[in-house]
Design a protein that fits this description.
Elements lengths: L7 H5 L1 H4 L3 E5 L5 E5 L10 E6 L7 E14 L2 E4 L2 E4 L3 E5 L4 E5 L5 E6 L2 E9 L5 E10 L4 E13 L15 E3 L2 E4 L8 E5 L4 E13 L1 H5 L5 E14 L4 E7 L8 H9 L8 H10 L2 E4 L2 E4 L2 E2 L6 H11 L6 H12 L23 H14 L5 H18 L6 E2 L5 E2 L13 E2 L2 E2 L6 E2 H20 L3 H7 L2 H13 E2 L4 E2 L2 E3 L3 E3 L5 H7 L7 H14 L1 E2 L2 E3 L16 H7 L5 E2 L3 H12 L4 H10 L15 E2 L7 E2 L3 E2 H17 L3
Antiparallel strand pairs: 1-2, 2-3, 3-4, 4-5, 4-12, 6-7, 8-9, 9-10, 10-11, 11-18, 12-17, 13-14, 14-15, 15-18, 16-17, 19-20, 21-36, 22-23, 24-25, 26-29, 27-28, 29-30, 31-32, 32-33, 34-35
Helix pairs in contact: 5-18, 6-7, 6-8, 6-18, 8-9, 8-10, 9-10, 10-11, 10-12, 10-13, 13-14, 13-16, 14-16, 16-17, 16-18
Length: 648
């Protein structure tokens, strides 16, 4: 019995099956994603989505989908599916799906008359190549397969339409063809493990609709190009492998390459194995860099997300070398004490005040998990960040005379609560922010500890005066004895903002905390009462007049809810660590209940992974990206913490 299982009734129910998506990535930066029934519902869906260097390394959909037609006893059955205007689906191949499995790779079994056809897909690890294996499990007599590719050749963030600029010509390659619709793109090589006849019938399929884009308030209709179709004979027991690749391959090796790629994969047969599989999917190695992609299918590699997710993604899986590679890549992009928040190539945005401070936390995790070269390797970068924050850097980020970090950049959101609507931050949180100053204290204390070990007397003398000052100022500014918790931010104009948000929980969880045990307990208890849900922590208390309990509608509507009540699973990390810190073994059952409660979502939204966010209101529907790095990373980290420190 599979760990994640869907019955035929669920599969053929499009309302159910179209809400469930699958994402698979490889280390080359490519991905394949679609729904349970192979019907694309997003512009981000596609079977081969690759980074294209000619366009800044952004991801582009080359192969959107494949239609497979089974021809048996003079009858044709197309097992593909697309949506058109007016909720019209054609063809309706989902009704032929007999079974679906996720282990070890996605497997769909179709029954068409007397034919039982198994279809499996996999991405090759370090190549921009998709392999599809078709196995004829049952067939009374010889049959034919027709396979029609649908091409997009466009950015994942855009849609394409029929046009005269598209190159509709094809060139033959061994057991297939290659196509390149526009200059700058690589050619897409479509080949089979056996000889196949290609019928060149170029055509546009117009008005294909993507329902998820429609819900999100974006353009949702596009035209897909098909150069024609392949046709071949097939019989019972036969295995045929199709390859879509940016380079020409030797077809004789397709079958063994498919088997070899599957071998060694972790089966998705348990909650922890699903998390481990999902974790490795965020790792991308390109151009000598090792990156952590923040979320699939539409995010890139972001500094803040990298440092928060890295301990769970790498250390919880005992990948110390991977951890170093990622840190080395980030340190190589450090500029004026800041890490890039987002962007790629030459257009990096250095607008994250917290990414450099999460870097110190990631060093602490590295040291605790065997990184003996921590300060030798990263001390110079760490000290440069301390100096930049102390003396001042971009966006008016600077240390004031009270030892605390203050930032005030009009129109900019520098913390992780960074949604902007019509050029105006939704939650700007300018001035002194609670988690920034908690992490600043943690960074300074850790740096002093490391400098003492390295006998760096100059740095120790220069910075050693700050911890007491920071702590005194922090408690005076942020702690509200009457309310029993920390302010979220304080600035010169508004004074103290005491909205109940999860940022204060971070101040509890850090290795160096300025709070005493009673203060920690009070912070956790108010968070537990007003923010904790079965899916993560809300970003704002439901009792607040600005609270928004659902995340849906246009981008503007969604951005207004993003940090105003929306639930984030990654926040279980600092909350659970803080809870264990305060309550010890007595807190283990609660933490286990929260973390393992997420097992319920393995068959929702992104199959076998965790979503970016959930609604603040019950039933806490999954939203945002279908697979998010820090959601996976923090859950894995807490599980590892439970197993290593609280096993008994």
């Amino acid at each position: 019995m599979s760990y994640i299982k869907f019955d035929k009734g669920q599969i053929v129910n499009l309302e159910y099956s179209l809400a469930r998506e699958i994402i698979r990535t490889n280390r080359a930066g490519s991905y394949a994603s679609t729904t349970l029934v192979d019907c694309n519902t997003r512009k981000y869906h596609g079977l081969l989505v690759c980074p294209v260097d000619a366009f800044g390394g952004g991801r582009h959909v080359l192969l959107s989908s494949l239609d497979v037609t089974v021809i048996n006893q003079d009858l044709s059955f197309n097992i593909g599916i697309r949506k058109y205007k007016g909720d019209y689906y054609s063809p309706k191949g989902h009704k032929y799906i007999e079974d679906f499995e996720t282990e070890v790779i996605p497997v769909r079994i179709y029954r068409v008359g007397s034919v039982l056809l198994k279809m499996e897909r996999i991405l090759v690890h370090y190549e921009e190549q998709l392999l599809v294996r078709y196995t004829v499990l049952e067939a009374q007599e010889s049959m034919k397969l027709q396979i029609r590719p649908f091409l997009s050749f466009r950015s994942i963030h855009q849609l394409t339409h029929a046009n005269l600029a598209a190159n509709t010509k094809i060139e033959p390659v061994k057991n297939g063809i290659k196509s390149k619709m526009y200059d700058g793109f690589p050619s897409l090589h479509m080949q089979f493990s056996k000889k196949a006849e290609f019928v060149h019938v170029p055509d546009w399929y117009r008005g294909v609709e993507y329902t998820e884009e429609q819900k999100r308030g974006y353009d949702f209709s596009e035209d897909l190009f098909t150069p024609g179709f392949f046709e071949m004979e097939a019989k019972k027991g036969e295995v045929i492998v199709f390859s879509a690749s940016t380079s020409e391959e030797n077809p004789t090796g397709f079958k063994s390459k498919f088997t070899k790629t599957v071998d060694g994969k972790i089966p998705r047969d348990s909650f922890i194995n699903c998390l481990r599989n999902a974790a490795q999917q965020f790792v991308e190695k390109r151009g000598g860099k090792t990156l952590i992609i923040a979320g699939y299918p539409w995010f890139g590699a972001w500094g803040r997300d990298t440092f928060i997710s890295l301990p769970g993604i790498a250390l919880a899986r005992h990948k110390l070398a991977l951890y170093r590679e990622v840190l080395d890549t980030q340190v190589g992009m450090l500029k004026d004490g800041l890490f890039p928040n987002m962007g790629s190539g030459g257009s990096l945005a250095y607008n994250s005040i917290d990414a450099p401070l999460w870097f110190f936390w990631s060093l602490q995790q590295y040291l605790e998990n065997g990184g003996t070269d921590c300060w030798e390797r990263y001390g110079s970068a760490a000290k440069s960040i301390i100096t930049s924050y102390k003396n001042g850097t971009a966006y008016n980020i600077h240390m004031r005379d009270n030892g605390l970090i203050y930032a005030d950049a009009p129109g900019k959101s520098l913390t992780w609560m960074d949604a902007v609507v019509n050029g105006i931050p939704v939650t700007q949180r300018r001035g002194y922010t609670v988690e920034i100053n908690a992490m600043w204290y943690n960074a300074v204390c850790f740096s002093i500890e490391m400098a003492k070990i390295e006998k760096d007397r100059k740095f120790t003398k220069e910075v050693g005066i700050y911890p007491d000052l920071i702590k005194k100022s922090f408690l005076e500014l942020f702690w509200d004895e009457k309310l029993g918790y920390l302010a979220d931010y304080v600035n010169d104009d508004e004074g103290r903002n005491s909205f109940v948000r999860p940022n204060m929980v971070i101040a509890v969880s850090l290795p160096y905390s300025m709070l005493d045990r009673d203060q920690m307990r009070k912070v956790l208890e108010i968070a537990d009462k007003e923010l904790v849900t079965p899916r993560g922590l809300r970003t704002l208390s439901p009792g607040n007049k600005f609270y928004k309990g659902t995340y849906c509608g246009t981008q503007e509507e969604r951005d207004k809810a993003y940090h105003q009540g929306t639930v984030w699973p990654w926040l279980f990390g600092p909350f659970c660590e803080g809870w264990l810190k305060v309550f010890g073994n007595q807190g283990v059952n609660k933490v286990r209940r929260l973390i393992y409660g997420l097992e319920e979502v393995m068959s929702e939204h992104g199959i076998s992974t965790l979503s970016e966010i959930h609604d603040g209101d019950p039933p806490h529907a999954p939203r945002g990206t279908i697979s998010q790095a820090w959601s996976i990373g923090e859950v894995l980290r807490i599980i590892n913490l439970l197993e290593t420190k609280y096993a008994n």
